[in-house]
Specification:
Distance between the termini: 24 Å
Shape: elongated
Radius of gyration: 20 Å
Strand content: under 5%
Order of helices and strands: HHHHH
Number of helices: 5
Helix content: over 70%
Number of strands: 0
Structural class: mainly alpha
């Protein structure tokens, strides 16, 4: 039974990773016009949520709009690749591995996919391949992996305490 659960967890983590990569690919496949429209809609949604009253001052041709859009887009890179790092890290943690392996393998996978994603954008109309985005994606992947390793350490500590109490 335990082995079946382990196999299931492994499959689920790898499947979730593939689904997430497909979602990233779909976002990267948007033309510059489509991507800008999504960013603008998201920005205006966030401004409404945070009740920023001077929304009319933040139009597409202002420096403030450009700054918020830049911040939003780079934060999205960090978040999206952070989730990918968590999924890769969670998948690798399902196998016997050293701490270094639990960091290095998901990092390598995440960096590879970030490079593939940026290369893909090179061929999308109006989009660009940017090393800066690969760097931001890499930081996101690392943060995601560290979150997973932190959760794993907390769960291990909890199991040890639980075993000590039951003795």
């Amino acid at each position: 039974m335990l082995m079946g659960n382990l196999r299931l967890r492994r499959c689920l983590f790898w499947l979730a990773s593939l689904v997430w990569m497909a979602m990233i690919f779909r976002f990267s496949d948007q033309t510059a016009t489509e991507s800008s429209a999504v960013s603008d809609a998201t920005l205006h949604f966030l401004l409404r949520i945070f009740r920023i009253d001077n929304m009319e001052e933040i139009t597409a041709d202002t420096i403030l709009h450009q700054f918020f859009t830049f911040l939003l887009r780079k934060s999205a890179h960090l978040l999206i690749f952070g989730v990918l790092g968590m999924l890769f890290g969670g998948a690798v943690c399902q196998y016997p591995a050293t701490r270094l392996q639990k960091i290095a393998l998901p990092m390598a996978l995440g960096i590879l996919y970030a490079c593939i994603d940026e290369l893909h954008q090179y061929f999308v109309p109006g989009r660009a391949c940017q090393i800066r985005d690969v760097c931001i994606d890499t930081v996101g992947v690392l943060i995601g992996i560290l979150v997973v390793l932190g959760i794993e350490a907390l769960l291990r500590r909890h199991r040890i305490r639980k075993q000590a109490v039951s003795r």
